[in-house]
Specification:
The chain is an alpha/beta fold. The protein has 9 helices and 8 strands. It has a single domain, classed as TIM Barrel, CATH 3.20.20.
């Protein structure tokens, strides 16, 4: 599966968000990642469906990957789907009926995924793996950008990669938190194929150079060089 770089707009310049997102896509990014926080499920308050729609109205064509860190989660799913989301992922702890929430995402025309915090067990996958299009592993505790990568996430990636491979399904394995040029090779080697990076990209002086270095490191991991 083709590796994807997914800059998180949590670290973008919101005073000129359309231009900044366009710039990062022109620099080689593949999809745009939304970190949606409600100051309830996680300790921060960020963005809603209006921002997603605004980017679509601005002319952003790339896939939009919406990570919902909200509770309850079901009510906002149709709003993001209607605003132009392509992927919608959520935390199983935020849903009373996980299977129903996955179905709701699909019914609204989006690809569906589950998100696992660093200390969240993977038991949910025993019951819903076949229904997922993407699995997102958090390599920091959600709430804020710029945190350090939690190294134990690598073994968790390896575990989920085996589960996906055994399932025979095309399920993306996404990682979010502390992803940088100097660790993305190890992350890719552990099995990730979709890489969320916020401050590492938007905080760099040259988006193109940073993304090119990331892609080169991923390629090196895949070829064993």
């Amino acid at each position: 599966m083709k590796p994807l770089i997914a800059p998180s707009i949590l670290s973008a310049d919101f005073a000129r968000l359309g231009e900044d997102v366009s710039a990062v896509l022109d620099a080689g990014a593949d999809i745009i990642h939304f970190d949606v926080m409600d100051n309830h499920f996680v300790p921060n308050l960020t963005i809603g469906p209006m921002i997603c729609k605004s980017l679509r109205d601005f002319g952003i064509q790339a896939p939009i990957d919406v990570h919902l860190m909200v509770e309850p989660v079901d009510n906002i799913i149709p709003d993001f789907a209607g605003a132009g989301a392509n992927y919608i992922t959520f935390h199983p702890e935020a849903s009373r009926h996980v299977h129903r929430t996955i179905g709701m995402i699909h019914d609204n025309g989006c690809k569906a995924g589950l998100v696992f915090n660093p200390a969240t067990p993977l038991d949910w996958l025993e019951h819903v793996l076949e229904d997922l299009d993407i699995i997102l592993l958090m390599s920091v505790n959600p709430g804020f950008g710029g945190q350090k990568f939690i190294d134990s996430s690598l073994s968790k990636l390896e575990t989920v990669r085996k589960l996906i491979d055994q399932s025979g399904k095309e399920i993306r394995l996404e990682i979010d938190g502390g992803v940088k040029v100097d660790n993305i090779k190890n992350i890719a080697a552990a099995g990730a194929d979709t890489f969320v990076a916020g401050s590492a990209i938007f905080g760099s002086l040259d988006y193109s150079a940073t993304i090119a270095k990331m892609k080169a490191e991923i390629k090196a991991a895949r070829t064993g060089s």
